[in-house]
């Protein structure tokens, strides 16, 4: 849990990562939702699950929100990440559509 008030779909996705719950992670997204990790896009339930399996939950990831700001349907965060794939800080951009995430983007840091 973070100390920031985040839109419910954003918090749901973060909680799913930290709980190691792939089903909840996938369910946090719309049917055509996607993860864009440095330009690699994984779309739809199968794509989102694939990213969770290789880069997040399957890699033992933990995500800590360091800062957050929401403007309309877009939330931007700075987060700490630890996993067997990557350790460090990144930016994240979430777009909410209704009660789900339309997208989660991790832009290149350079």
Automatic annotation (TrEMBL):
Database matches in InterPro entries: NTF2-like_dom_sf (IPR032710)
Source domain of life: Bacteria
Name listed for the protein in its UniProt record: Nuclear transport factor 2 family protein
């Amino acid at each position: 849990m973070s100390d920031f008030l985040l839109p419910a779909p954003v918090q749901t996705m973060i909680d799913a990562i930290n709980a190691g719950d792939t089903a909840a992670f996938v369910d946090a997204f719309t049917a055509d939702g996607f993860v864009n990790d440095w330009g690699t896009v994984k779309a739809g339930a199968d794509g989102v699950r694939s990213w969770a399996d290789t880069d997040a939950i399957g890699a033992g990831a933990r995500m800590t929100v360091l800062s957050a700001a929401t403007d309309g349907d877009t939330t931007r965060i700075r987060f700490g990440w630890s996993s067997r794939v990557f350790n460090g800080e990144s930016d994240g951009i979430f777009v909410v559509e209704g009660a789900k995430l339309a997208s989660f983007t991790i832009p290149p840091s350079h």
